[in-house]
TrEMBL record:
It holds the Pfam family CMD. Its EC number is 1.11.1.28. NCBIfam families: ahpD, ahpD_dom. Residues 96-175 form the Carboxymuconolactone decarboxylase-like domain. The active site is at C130 (proton donor), C133 (cysteine sulfenic acid (-soh) intermediate). Disulfide bonds join C130-C133. It comes from Acetobacter nitrogenifigens DSM 23921 = NBRC 105050. Belongs to the AhpD family. The keyword Disulfide bond applies. The gene is ahpD. This is Alkyl hydroperoxide reductase AhpD. One of its GO terms (molecular function) is hydroperoxide reductase activity. InterPro entries: AhpD, AhpD-like, AhpD_core, CMD-like.
């Protein structure tokens, strides 16, 4: 199903999401690669297969194969890291000082500009609710030259994509 067709399936009770999704899909705050990758990584993190397929169909075509793989990698590695680092943050104590002993080499060599990968990681971390990771990635993108408005745009994309994914899933369940 196309992105536009899926967007049209957003129920009227959530029309603000539909409008926000359309606005963000055309946002000029981020580069084309940053925007498309943020949509892809956020959709994957939102765990709605149908919506993820539509987002990848729409935005994946705007990314090089390397950038598409990096956006997917950001969602994958943050899926692991967000759980682990939320745990260490919640627990505190010795856990924060122990080495993670988890392979995460893609963060060092993501195959795209480091700032873009960090931005996608930030969006996924926001969806997954990992404060420690959001702060770390925000610091990295700011040091990489992005503005607070660009960071906010990535967070807005993450918020709307996640809300749309949840709404579509709830709507489908209600119709079943």
């Amino acid at each position: 199903m196309s992105f536009e067709a899926l967007k049209d399936r957003i129920p009227d009770y959530a029309k603000d999401l539909r409008l926000n999704l359309g606005t963000l899909a055309n946002d000029a705050t981020l580069s084309a690669q940053q925007l498309a990758g943020t949509f892809v990584a956020s959709a994957i993190a939102s765990r709605n297969d149908e919506f993820t397929k539509a987002v990848i169909e729409e935005f994946g075509a705007k990314l090089s194969p390397e950038a598409l793989a990096a956006a997917k990698s950001a969602a994958a590695i943050m899926g692991m890291n967000n759980v682990y680092y939320r745990f260490t943050h919640f627990m505190g104590g010795d856990y924060e000082n122990l080495p993670a002993k988890l392979r995460m080499s893609v963060i060092g060599k993501p195959g795209v500009e480091k700032v873009d990968f960090e931005l996608w990681s930030l969006a996924v971390s926001a969806i997954n609710g990992c404060e420690m990771c959001v702060r770390s990635h925000e610091r990295a993108v700011r040091e990489g030259g992005l503005t607070s408005e660009q960071v906010q745009t990535a967070a807005r994309i993450a918020a709307v994509v996640h809300a749309v994914a949840v709404t579509l899933e709830a709507s489908a369940a209600a119709d079943a």
